[in-house]
From TrEMBL:
Its EC number is 2.7.1.49, 2.7.4.7. The gene is thiDE. One of its GO terms (molecular function) is phosphomethylpyrimidine kinase activity. Belongs to the ThiD family. GO terms for biological process: thiamine biosynthetic process. Keywords: ATP-binding, Kinase, Nucleotide-binding, Thiamine biosynthesis, Transferase. It comes from Peptoclostridium acidaminophilum DSM 3953. It catalyses: 4-amino-2-methyl-5-(phosphooxymethyl)pyrimidine + ATP = 4-amino-2-methyl-5-(diphosphooxymethyl)pyrimidine + ADP; 4-amino-5-hydroxymethyl-2-methylpyrimidine + ATP = 4-amino-2-methyl-5-(phosphooxymethyl)pyrimidine + ADP + H(+). This is Hydroxymethylpyrimidine/phosphomethylpyrimidine kinase. It is an enzyme of class 2 (transferase). The lineage of its organism: Bacteria, Bacillati, Bacillota, Clostridia, Peptostreptococcales. GO terms for cellular component: cytosol.
Length: 271
């Protein structure tokens, strides 16, 4: 059994964050452990409140998992303030787990800021050098590079700039573009594009968390970076296609779509 640790915030609505990560791990057949960095009161309509977990408890969670269970990959999500970033980086430098996938979460689907202004530099300085892969979306890539991304060429330029500054693999996600969703992967040598059709739905809550978690799960399973991104892209596309119309706002993607399909087939064959 491969093991993946998620370090992220808790979403009371169950659409994103720790909850989305653990569902994604289950769907990929890997064991999920967690270290919660913040508790959010949110639903499909937005984030109502955030309470950060103390740095000492964050470190204790990470070290309790890594010292006993270990990990084959780590997914990192919401790190909302410098103290949180320092605590996470301290524990990761101490234990040196591999396959760290960092999703630089800055703004929620509903538009709520999830990263304080003074945390951005800490994220770049302390966390990016530890990552195997970072997965910014277009608004996050704009914020991190100072660019104004309009097309795939701009996405490549952003990926190049981020690689030069952090020296890790970069996946710039294209879900915020107007055309089909094309993600751009750059490993310092080659650009690879991963395209999918755009699905007409408002129910995309948790998309970024789910994609980065799926990549981490596939890396833990032993797939290459390119294959892990390809498989994760296919997974999130189906999760969006079968997304759930829950709540009054942006509903969640369907993390368990593949499992549920298998169960339905099984029950049809064996009533």
């Amino acid at each position: 059994m491969k093991k993946v640790l998620t370090i992220a915030g808790s979403d009371s609505g169950g659409c994103a964050g720790i909850q989305a990560d653990l569902k994604t791990f289950c769907a990929h057949g890997v064991f999920g452990a967690s270290a919660i960095t913040a508790i959010t009161a949110q639903n499909t309509q937005g984030v109502r409140a955030i309470e950060d977990i103390s740095p000492d408890i964050i470190k204790a969670q990470i070290e309790a998992v890594l010292e006993d269970i270990g990990s084959d990959a780590v997914k990192i999500g919401m790190l909302s303030r410098p103290q949180t970033i320092e605590a996470v980086s301290h524990s990761l430098r101490k234990h040196r787990p591999g396959n760290i996938v960092l999703d630089p979460v800055m703004v929620s689907t509903s538009g709520h800021d999830l990263l304080s202004a003074d945390a951005k530099e800490s994220l770049i300085k302390l966390m990016f050098p530890l990552a195997f892969l970072i997965t910014p979306n277009i608004p996050e890539a704009n914020c991190l590079t100072g660019l104004h991304i309009k097309d795939i060429a701009d996405m490549e330029e952003a990926a190049r700039k981020l690689f030069e500054s952090c020296r890790c693999n970069v996946l710039v996600k294209g879900g915020h573009s107007a055309a089909d969703a094309v993600d751009v992967l750059y490993d310092g040598k080659t650009f690879r594009h991963f395209a999918s059709r755009r699905i007409d739905t408002k129910n995309t809550h948790g998309t970024g968390c789910t994609l980065s978690s799926a990549i981490a799960a596939n890396l833990a399973l032993g797939y290459s970076l390119e294959e892990s991104v390809k498989r994760a892209k296919e997974y999130i596309t189906l999760a969006i296609e079968h997304s759930l119309d829950i709540g009054k706002g942006c509903g969640p993607v369907n993390h368990m779509h593949a499992y549920l399909k298998k169960e339905m087939i099984k029950h049809v064959k064996q009533p």
